[in-house]
Design goal:
alpha+beta, D-amino Acid Aminotransferase, Chain A, domain 1, 6-stranded antiparallel sheet, 5-stranded antiparallel sheet, 9 helices, about 25% strand
Amino acid sequence: MGTDLNLLREQCQRTLDSTDLEGLGSREEGKVRDCYIGEGRRILVATDRVSCFDVVVGTIPFKGQVLNQLAAFWFEQTQSIAPNHLIEVPDPAVSIARECKPVPVEFVVRGYLTGSTSTSIWTAYDRGDREYCGHTLPEGLSRHERLREPILTPTTKAAKGDHDAPASRHQLIERNLIDEALYDRAEEMVLKLFAEGTRFAAERGLILVDTKYELGFDPEGELVVIDEIHTPDSSRYWYLDSYDAMMSQRKDPQALDKEYVRRWLGEQGYRGEGTSPEIPDEVRCEAARRYIEAFERVTGREFEPNTEVPLERIRRNLGL
């Protein structure tokens, strides 16, 4: 599908920005996904909403379909490393999963010294901090430079509209958000997932820069991966073949994720406070093109967009 700009422009007028699906259980609205919980299941509807700086700033055509299908791909790809909550994918933008008890921590793994938000590892390093989430960083590093080894830099899980806060292992344990044994078990799991994601992405000509994992306990008490994994929303991707050249020219690496939207907002002076500026269709379409390319690069499959009216299609596929 790639770069059919006419289709992307048309789809800008029929993105999925909200849902209200009666009969599926109690509804929880996240930044991007609307979840319906009942009978031990969680139905996750990936909308086209885009969140930057922990704020919903608009919609991107086909984004929900890309996220949902790419997460399902990665869940299958990594199930031998870590179990996950996925049961089935009945619709391009919908997943049905086991209802799990979430761990109240987001597990962020970073392989590079980068970021643009006020709480990013690069922002902290640039202002002189050499301790970040319990890790000591060496002097003399440059922006976007690869770290000696991937590090876990967890955050607290903020409610919708609030900002996640970076924390160290010690701080999370001290606040009783997680105990030592569970933290160490989770760290081992997510570092293995990141290593596999890094390896697989490199085979596809991409660098998995950093990513966020969410974990929970399934009904049998097993620790599993929930929500999404290695998508352009939860992860940062750069092109592998141009990374060294961009670094030597002191330029930002070429990215294939929602960082494009975040940077556009930053150029407008927006950093997550107050009302976000309206994102023009040309920016939305370019973001959609990047999401679709990420899907096709990672999976090796052509993205097949579904242009039906989203809610009508979802109701039909869920038997409502």
